[in-house]
Amino acid sequence: MQTHEILQNAAQTIAITSKDLSVTADDLSTLANQLSSDLAQVCQNGEKVLEDIKKTTDILRFVSDIAANSNLLGLNAAIEAARAGEHGRGFAVVAEEIRKMAVNSGKSVENIATILKTIQHETSKVVSVLVKTTELGNTQASSTGRISASIHQLAEIAANIQKVADSV
Q1: Rounded to whole angstroms, how far apart are CA atoms 168 and 3?
Q2: Dihedral sign computed on CA atoms, order 27, 32, 33, 38
Q3: pLDDT by 10s per residue, the chain, length 168
Q4: What is this structure's pTM?
Q5: CATH 1.10.287.950 correct for 2-167
Q6: Which UniProt keywords apply (predicted)?
């Protein structure tokens, strides 16, 4: 009788613990899958940012060309203003301001390009870490799924032991 009671208590404890573990493992598996999915999405977003940065390089090249051409136009305008003598003095001031704006625009383009290269480099590092983390998340999700399946199997065994204990 005492053996029967010990067997029945052990079977109930195993059954309850297995059910708790099963629920927890299922929750972990769900969370691991969600984490893996979210990391993959963040990785895709990072890659999109890198693509957009590459597109801005073309735009910066265009603005740089405009700045260089504006500088030449300002220089030519200054030459023509000098030829005009006293009548071209006002135009010479405008030409000089155009040249200053062109030089400042060119420097700004260079600064922006430097900043974008830094952003691109740092974003590449982030994406690289995200790729590795996504792989880890996938591995974790897979492992958690296997643990969950094992715990479900353990719960079935515990239920069978409970049936045997009840019948004894």
Answers
A1: 10
A2: positive
A3: 777 788 888 888 888 888 888 888 888 888 888 888 888 899 899 899 989 988 898 899 999 999 999 999 999 999 999 999 998 888 899 999 999 999 999 999 999 999 999 999 999 999 899 889 888 888 888 888 888 888 888 888 888 887 877 776
A4: 0.64
A5: yes
A6: Transducer
